[in-house]
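Issue: copy button drops trailing tokens. Both records pasted manually instead:
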Amino acid sequence: MKRLRMLREKKQLTQSQLGKLTDISPSAIGMYEQGRREANHETLLKLANFFNVSTDYLLGRDNATESAKTPKDLAKFLENTEVMFDGEVHHLDEEDKQKLKNALEFVFWQAKEKNKRKPKK
């Protein structure tokens, strides 16, 4: 699983840190990265969930980096202090985060109301 190493390094994690976060031994992670050992189904799912990718992506069968099945968690997004918009990085303070959250909640409520009014097929 060559992609495992890339994903781990992208998050700036050591094998030991990843092991603690996923409850997988660092030596096993090293062997997976080197292709000396194959992860079982449960371990593949743990790693895919941790990195928010599909198991097919981890195994090199798919090039989509993010899992299409997993929705983004708005609360986690709003924890970030930096966001990229229109190619520029913007730093958000608590007031900016609250304004963004309020605007998104407004849009979500509107979408919910619009979906209620759609005729059933």
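Record 2 (pasted manually too):
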Amino acid sequence: MLFTDANWAESSAVGRAIAKPFQPWRCVGWTDDTICFWVFPESVSDRTGALPDGLLVVDPAALLDTASQLTPDSFSVYVMEAPAEGRPAARMQRVTGLLTQQRINASMCDYWYRTQEGDLHPCSRLQHHLPNDAPLRLALSLDAQDYDDPIVVAR
């Protein structure tokens, strides 16, 4: 979930006018229950002024919605990975794919993302387990590599 404070709003009238129809903020925060994605449209000369330079997307479903509104191969996606053992600082990682997996005995899906290093991570920090036995299905490819078959995860 994204959140902000009224004090973090852009105070400059010019800055607010330039950002219309968006609402500019100097600072936002988020909870870590789901992963937030950073979407960066490629800078091309014929791009309309309709998009900001980057988008902070609050969850994988919102990422799929955002990607459906952009031209394929015209944007890149990154995720802020939390600090880990041996790595005290958070780091940005490029995302190459978003995958879904049917939950056992449920009608819902879990989401997973793959980084450029090939590592697979859950999109929810509450989801600390390896994928179940259900196949992972590619929901969004952000890499030139084509994933036609279900992805099998070695345990």
